[in-house]
Structure formats: C-alpha cells, structure tokens
Design goal:
Length: about 850
Amino acid sequence: MSAEPILVMKDICKSFPGVVALKNAQLRLFPGEVHAVMGQNGAGKSTLIKALTGVELPDSGEIRLKGQAIQPTSVNEAQKIGISTVYQEVNLCPNLSVAENIFIGRFPMRGFAIDWKAIERESIAALAALNIHIDVNQTLSVFPVAIQQMVAIARALSTEAQVLILDEPTSSLDEDEVERLFKALRQLKAKGMAILFVTHFLDQTYAISDRITVLRNGEFIGEYMASALSRLDLINTMVGREINESSYAVQNAGDESHVANKPFISAQGLGSTGNMRPIDLDIYQGQVLGLGGLLGSGRTETARMLFGIDHSDSGTIHIDGKPVKLSSPSKAVQQGIAFCPEDRKTEGIVADLSIRENIILALQARRGVFHYLPKRAQTAIADEYIKQLGIRTPDAEKPIGQLSGGNQQKALLARWLATDPKMLILDEPTRGIDIAAKLEIMELVKAQCRKGLAILFISSEMSEVLRVSDRIAQWQGRRRTKRIPNDRRGRSMNEKLRNLTRSQLFWPCVTLTLMCLVNFYFNRGFFDIEIKDGHLYGSVIDILNRAAPMLLIAMGMTLVIATRGIDISVGATVAIAGAVVASMIGGSLVIQDGVQTYVSNVPMPVAIICALLVALICGLWNGLLVAGAGMQPIVATLILMVAGRGVAQLVTEGQIVTVYYEPFFFIGNGFLLGIPFSLYVVAVVLIALLFMVHRTALGLFIEAVGVNPVAARFSGISARALVFWVYAFCSLTAGIAALIVTSNVKSADANNAGLMLELDAILAVALGGTSLAGGRFNLIGTLLGGLIIQTLTYAIYSLGVPPEINMVVKAIVVFAVCLFQSAELRAMLSKHMFRPGEAA
C-alpha cells in the first residue's frame, strides 16, 4: 500500500432545501486498498459519492486526485479522469443489450461506424472476469436483477479506472455472486486500484475492507483500520449510541398462543408454465414464514403470484379455507394481503409524490375514489409511521424520490402497515437498509406477527431469515433458469410461429398486406404498373408518391417519440417552410423572342436552403423549450402549432401564393429513371437515418434517453443536447416535406398546407410498433405504418365512402392495428394460440 492517498476529499459541504446532506465530510483513498464508507441511511454516503463523481456539485470543499485539484461536473468527466462508479440502484437501460449497456457512451469505433465485434468480444471478457457467462447480445431486461447488477459492475471495471466506487453493489447478489465479486476486487486491489466500497452488510465490510470511514448525519466521525475496529464499536459509532450486542439478535418467542390453528392462506400446486414449477405453501396468522434459496430460485415469483401480479396456470389458492382467484393486486388487497416488492424504485415508490401521499396510497386505493381520506387524516397517518419507523425527513410533504434508499424502503413498508393487512409479503425488506434500521424492521416484523399478522419474509441473507422466521421454506430449482440456445434446429412449429408473431414488424406487415388485398378485391388493376413516356404509373406508385411527405415527417417523429417526446407542430412547420419557398420562387412572366416563360424571383437553390433553414429554426425553438426550459413536449410544440399558421399567413400576406417556376415542380411531380423523384428523397433520408441509428451510437443514445434518462446521464450521455437536436431534425424533415407538398400543388396555402400531417405521422409511428412511451423504435416499422395509412386512405376514397364517415373508418382500422400492437394482448394470444407440449 502507498503511504500517500491517491484521492482526498476535504471539508466537503452540500445542502439541499431543508436538509444538510454533508458538513465538512472527509475521505482518503489509498492505492491497493478497499475503503468502506459506513453510516446509517441519510448519513451522506450517496451524496459524498455524487459529489466525487460530478452528479452533484459540492457547495464547498476540496477534492484532489494524485495531488491535483479536480471538480468533475459530470459522470462522463469523472470517468475520463479515472473515477468509475456503480451506483446503489442498477442505472442501466433495460431495452438495450448487455454489450450495449457495458459500452454505452464510449463505443469503440472503426472509422465512422461502431465496432460491434469489438464490443461483443470485450463485453464477454469483462463479464468473464466476474465468472459470468451469458449471451451479451441478449436484451438486459430478460436477466434477473442480480445479473443486471453484475453487468453494471462489469461496465465499471471495463473502464480501467484508477478509482472504483461501488455503492451498495451486493444488494441484489447471493453469497456465491458476492464471493465472485470479492475475488475480482481482490485482483484489482493487487494491481494497485483504490476501491471505495459502500454497504450495509457488516460481514461484507470486514470480509473485503482494509479501511473504514464512518459518517453520521452528514458529518465525518472518523477513519479506522478495519482490523482495529470491532463490529460492535462500528455499530455504536454509526448510530451514535451504545447498542448491546445481545440486543442485535431478534429472538423468536416461545409463546405461540398467537398462532392460528389453520393457515390463513394455503397454495397447492401453484405454478406457472415455463417460469416456476408447482409448489405447496401454507402461511399461518401469527407466524413468519421465511423463504430461503438463491436468487432466481422462485422466491420472488411465488410472492408475485400470491399478490396477483403474475398469474399462475396451475394450482389453487385458499384464504381462510375458501378458494379464491388472485387475478390482480387489487383483488389481493381486498383479501387483506400486502406486498413490499424487491425493486422499490420501479415497483414500489412513486418518486414525484410526497412521503405522505406514498404512505396513504394503498389505503386510499382500498377505500376507493369517492371515499376520500381527508388530508388531515393522511398527515396524521404519515406522521405516525414516520416516527414509528424512524424515517429521516424534515416533514411528510417532501418528495419520496429525494429520500435515501433505506428511508424509501421504510416509507414503502409504512404504506402497507397503514392498511392493517392480514398478511404481509416482504420481498427483501432490508435491502439497502442500515444496521440499526434492520434491527428496527425485524423487531417490527415480530411485533406485527404477535398481533396475528401472517408474514412471508424473503431475504437473500440467510442469517436474517433464521433470525426472524418461525418456519423456513428452502426454495431450490423452482424456477427454470436454463436458456434456450440461439439455435433454430429442433424448435417446434409453435415456437417458430410464436417468435414470428412477437416480431415488431409482424402486425404492420400483415396489416399492409390486408390493405393491399382489400384494394385488389375492389379494384383488380390495383397492382398494375403502366409505363408512359418512360415513367411508371399505377395505384401503388400513386400511393407511394402521395405518402412521401408524411413518411418524411414520420421518420423525424419516430426519433422524437423514442425520447419520450411528441411534436404536434410539424404541420405548421410545413406551412411556414412552404410559404417561404413559394414566396421566394414565385415566378415572373418574361417574354423573349415572342416566347412566354416564367423565371424564379430568386435562385431556386437559395429559396430551398432558406425554407429548410426556417424549418430548422422551428425545430431549434421546440428543442430549446423542451430540452432547455424543461417544458412538456406537447405544450412546447403546441405553441408553434398555434403560432406557426399565423407566421405562414404573415409570409404569404394572407393570400394563396402560386408558383409558376416549372423547374421547381420537378421536386413533387418529376420522375427520375421512371420513378417519382419524391421517392428518391424519402429513400435518401431513410438510408442516411438508418446508417446514423444503426452504424453509430445515435440510435442507442436515443433509446437510452427514452427508457431511462437518469441511467443515460449516468452513462455520460448528454440527454438534453440529444433531445434538442432530435427536435431540430424532426422539423428539418418537415421542411423537406414542405418542398414536396408545395411543388406538388404548385402553391402555398398557409391555412391548409400540412394540415393533419402531424396526426398521420404520429399514427404511422404507433402503427410501426414504436411505443409512444419512448424507448425502442423501428424506422422500417414507421415506413410500413405510413404506407398502411396511405393505402387505407386510398381504399376509402376508391370505394366512394362518404367524406363524413371516412375518418371514422380510418380510426377503426388504426385502433384495431394499435390494439394488436399491445404487448399484453400479444402475450395473451401467444399463450392461448401456441401452448407448449408439456408443462415445465
């Protein structure tokens, strides 16, 4: 070990509204050491890490790395100077692959393209160092939380940092995985890396740490060598009071008079095909049933089925001897069952709501919409549990998302205790909880149990299960974890059909085919292609040509929607850009040698460039409001949608501007090699966009921001800049569409140009399979969606459907297609249409 620290944090202070998070905090990290930072929830551990990694800027203090003063302003900057972090919560992007998550923000390049082979190779090597062998091309979300945590650690290790920070890295890992991680950390320590390790597990602290720093209430208490500080002294130092060693163990009472004679809930043969084999389970009121076993063994799956989150397809459930069907969480709550889930961030808390609102949420849901709990009663309930559970907060109105992880867990527990349940399911209730709080929660569990509450207690710490449980069920092999290899040989026809229907492009292709067949049924010449003067004509060509402006806008809209946004101003942008190009080109009558010709008022290239620049400015304005000012996308773009038509009116002076310059007509009406020129424009934009999103990191960054902006930011992606330029691009595609529209009709109409194009573009994106909630997107799907809309429109007009009902017909078809795009509906259809030959 070096005699000099590699990193020093001195007198770090950080305050938030109403809370002093850090006050003169100190930290020293030495090369070749694992340094543990210990403290209760709210002690300032996570804030200290955020101040070190640029997530939060300290109010005052000094940070030095190798003697040089540093002040990272972002995670990306911290990584560049050699500081890599794995945060308490798994901040990865579940919609991306394992390999993409490991290298997001720093993809190796080969020329202008991402080197995917290098990413795959290096990802496999990074995970192999942790003895993890999985398919790195699989989407991250298919793996359990434990594997996701190991992927996050592999990402940090792959940066070759000088300082590695691990904030609660073992919270989702079992004993074997923890030991695997510790083995990797010892290897890194031997190479001279300085490792900062934050955990609530005392055993792990002493198993891996060389040095310990203790924080309490945001203040530095002391730095100690791990070998010189006993466990009891460490606990006393953390909590600031004497705790007797004997009081740390919760003893099961010998009196079982409070235990019911018959089980409150009894499950026989409960299972789920392909997920969990059938099990039998009895839970008695007045008893704690502990579930042991490795992660992925079926503990959480059992809890989720008992609470109606996941549905079983075999077995029965009886409550108080009566058969019940727990088809949803609301049904379970009506039966008196409460559930604290393992993943509190995504399944537990509502981060933007206050602590009070989170605590009374389940109670209010049980009371119903019209039986409102008065705010005074809400506050009383919240204050009672804040005091009872020791939730550290200045008041109950603070947003729960601003609490530390442990305090969020306590608030989640308070939510369900407030409902006075008959049975409480606790899935990893002490995950991320400090030593003193663990004791309080386990004492509370036993106290509730003595009152007659039935408790199902799940924990990856076997010592906790033994300490608090009256009975223990050991789960092993309940969940089928073996993955089907990526080999198509030997698959049944059902499997092949099921995989086909799950494809994002399946239903758009089916729908477009049906639309074409409907047109063919009523018009036998629908697929006919004629050649006149070397040009291609026909219904299909006409549909493609008419769809061009909408397809261009839909491609830009796809990127906007993928970032969780929306742009309803593109129609107005078409009107503005069309007004500019028409007004500039116009056309003046010139008679030369007796021949009448029209010439452009300004050079056509200049007019086109000006129109595109105006469209780009519209997009920059939208991006500024959304990304810069933080305005809601629909509100931000509504401003331009309303004002844009007025701007177009000003440009055209309230008149329809007619264009007489014939060379301009080629854009919307001309042919090149027999094919409409507008289709070449669409093809060029599509190919360029496909290259950008698939051969560079742009597509990954957009999807990352759309699914988890925080994880994207922590990965070094500039989310705001990305959103800003996505809106700019969307308006630019609207500007290109405006050129085609204006050229096609040979005029600019400020009132009608681009009308309804924004809605058709949004529908095209939805029909193509891109979720309106953001994330994964598919440009080819968008292309198919646009063609579906245009083919449907062609069919409606061809069939002579009255104008007053054609929008209704269009809406019905669009609704049906969007319904089949629903993941829930597709999963249900797949389950009933393609039943496996035998149960798992």
